[in-house]
Amino acid sequence: MRKGGGGVRWRLVEDARAVMERDPAVKSLWEALLCYPGVHALWMHRIAHALYRARLYFLARVVATWSRFLTGIDIHPGARIGPRLFIDHGMGVVIGETAVVGADVTIYQGVTLGGTGKERGKRHPTVGDRVLLSAGAIVLGNIVIGDDAKIGAGTVLLRSVPAGATVVGVPGRVVSIYGRSVPPEAPEEPSRAELAAAVAALEARLEAAEERLRALEEEQEGGARGSSHRLA
Question: Cα–Cα distances in Å, from 133 out to 6, 20, 40, 216?
């Protein structure tokens, strides 16, 4: 990479060119530079990340907070972002502190790269190169998304997937790898405790149904007796 001011200018142009390569709606380099909040969020994240690495945590969070206010994109200063990330539309995107995003990744609106709780250490996803994260995808935990993977819109992914995988559904399941279909996974065998709970729930429903049936029968018998008395 070039150094000094030329290097900064080169990174700005590189960000804009990533937009132009992956969004057919953009008409010019200036439009990509000035009208895409995903580009602006990247610029501000680089400043916040530099402050974070210098242990100026409060200032880093201030910059990140202003970035979120201006762009609607929430990137923690500690997140490691690779070159040529394209965040399209971007509103509602969340990238956690220990997330790692590779090169040439595309992220659409509403995507979350988050954690699963209050655990410490590496607790956010690692995203490989050239990955596509569709609108509303939720990727949680210290998992790995392999290079060239595609995560479908609205998918909730809680475990690692291999390179080239296409993942859809809730929870996310791999339906193909580099275009080749993957047989559906066999459902997991329920545990004894789960079976016992299911049986208990069925028994409770059966008892409730029998109670309702007895109540209806008694009501009908009472009605029949009343009618016979009136006829007599």
Answer: 31, 18, 19, 56
| Per-residue pLDDT at 3 | 42
Q: How far apart are CA 166 and CA 151, in angstroms?
A: 6
> What pLDDT band is residue 216 in, cutting at 50, 70 and 90?
confident
Q: How far is CA 102 from CA 54, 117, 187, in A?
A: 22, 24, 32
Position 4 scores a pLDDT of 42
Give the rounded distance of the alpha carbon of 201 from its chain centre: 33
User: Which fold is adopted by the domain 4-181?
Assistant: UDP N-Acetylglucosamine Acyltransferase; domain 1 (2.160.10)
φ/ψ of residue 175, rounded to 5? -105, -20
Domain boundaries, the chain: 4-181, 189-232
pTM for the model? 0.74
Q: Ranked by mean pLDDT, which of 30-39, 116-125, 142-151, 183-192 comes out on top? A: 142-151
Task: List the single range of 49-63, 154-168, 188-202, 215-229 with lowest mean pLDDT.
Answer: 188-202
On whether the CB atoms of residues 18 and 82 are closer than 8 A, the answer is no
Contact 164, 174 (CB under 8 A): no
Nearest 5°: the CA angle 95, 46, 148 is 50
The answer to whether 167 and 174 are in contact (CB under 8 A) is: yes
